[in-house]
Amino acid sequence: MAAPPNLVPIAYQGGSLAVPDWLNKGDNAWQMISATLVGLQSVPGLVILYGSIVKKKWAVNSAFMALYAFAAVVICWTTWAYKMSFGDKLLPFWGRGGPALGQKFLLKQAALPATTQYYENDTVETAMIEPFYPMASMVWFQCVFAAITLIILAGSVLGRMNFKAWMMFVPLWLTFSYTVGAFSLWGGGFLFHWGVMDYSGGYVIHLSSGIAGLTTAYWVGPRSTKDRERFPPNNVLLMLAGAGLLWMGWAGFNGGDPYTANIDSSMAVLNTNICAATSLLVWTWLDVIFFKKPSVIGAVQGMITGLVCITPGAGLVQGWAAVVMGVLSGSVPWFTMMVIGKKWKVFQKIDDTLAVFHTHAVAGLLGGILTGLFAEPSLCALFLPVTNSRGGVYGGSGGVQILKQIAGALFIIGWNIVVTSIICVVISFIIPLRMSDEELEIGDDAAHGEEAYALWGDGEKFDTFKGNYSNETTHHAVASGITQVV
């Protein structure tokens, strides 16, 4: 069958438009697979996890916040935010916005910013590196990272944030917070050239979402007293399904960041699973030792902290370091959540629904610092932004790297506290950030007119008549007051 006219190959640099000379089909396939895996972490991964880990009356609202954020980010990203993150420099920490749309833009070869290499007292900036795949692959891959950052942030304010306020918050925070971290660390900004290591988003995604989530939770206010006192998951098994998608999707999250299917990519995927598994086990052991019972929710939290902790160094550290990072990611966030979180008044005052601060901000900061300690020189040479760098345990300039990691984290923390606060205050002048008390009492039905489960005995009507259940009989029963409302 003949191809449609719009699919006929066009001559292009000695080849065709479909397969230009520079295209590496394997690299492009892995990049698109990685992007899809990261997208599946959000939709349906976190949509399922959020809809299941909350109280039944908030299942729809929580899942919908994740779904809405994903869709909104896709539009904002391709319209202006991608180029603010990876485009031409506007400021040392910010790119110049513009659309990542149109055939001319998307069909060209992807390009990555130049790096600064250090040779004794001289600095030499290398030329841009061009991955062997189209710009469209790069735009989509980075889009799903931006989307999951907003969805992680949402975990801090589930069960009370006004959905209309969330609709305003998503594009504003993406524009004024996420793009700054992405450009500064990945897109050629000042932290990128300074050599701060963030292999796959320990700072750009997890530290920023954890700090911004806690800040947003402060401005939105707490859940209702009843919800804070008792907030059981409505479906633990479905929660595990969402968590499983999150874990398996992390192969694309960390494996896609070398921008090629190389040795570094394989190391990143293996290290990711080693650290996550170790962290899950350590968290579970701590629960058994101190609380006498293994908690499946605790195991999921340990899994997440392991995945987050390894992210800034997944392709930069060796396997033994991934194990050490897993032990620490299963214990340090556990301590901040289970001990400090229950004693410090600030954590009692600020209602962080899913403890995003502990699972993402603490674990992300921990991972960033440990990357500065354990980054192996030969692996660093395979990763664009940290050429000629090394971790502290390898001597030389490694000690300086730890200081760089701390300084980079402080910038991300400070920027997110300030900018997130400004965004919340501005929105509050337009629309309340928090639902009304009446809506908080009812939940999904008040916020969306929908409920997660249609179960008998849960707001449904039961007809006591036997036999003929025609519409006329049912209507007569209701009119007669015989129908029982359960």
Automatic annotation (TrEMBL):
Which organism does this record belong to? Quillaja saponaria
The record, for InterPro entries, names: Ammonium/urea_transptr, Ammonium_transpt, Ammonium_transpt_CS, NH4_transpt_AmtB-like_dom
Q: Which domain of life is it from?
A: Eukaryota
According to the entry, every stretch annotated as the Ammonium transporter AmtB-like domain falls at: 29-453
Recorded hits in NCBIfam families, A to Z, give:
amt
Query: Which GO CC terms are listed, alphabetically?
Result: plasma membrane
User: Keywords on this record?
Assistant: Ammonia transport, Cell membrane, Membrane, Transmembrane, Transmembrane helix, Transport
Q: Which family does it belong to?
A: Belongs to the ammonia transporter channel (TC 1.A.11.2) family.
Q: What's an example Gene Ontology biological process for this entry?
A: response to symbiotic fungus
Q: What's the protein name?
A: Ammonium transporter
Localization terms from the record: Cell membrane
A Pfam family cross-referenced in the UniProt record is: Ammonium_transp
Q: Which residues cross the membrane?
A: 29-51, 63-82, 138-158, 170-191, 203-221, 233-253, 265-284, 296-314, 320-340, 361-386, 406-431
The topology of this chain with respect to the membrane is: Multi-pass membrane protein
- Which terms in the Gene Ontology molecular function aspect does this entry carry? ammonium channel activity
Q: Which PROSITE patterns match?
A: AMMONIUM_TRANSP (PS01219)
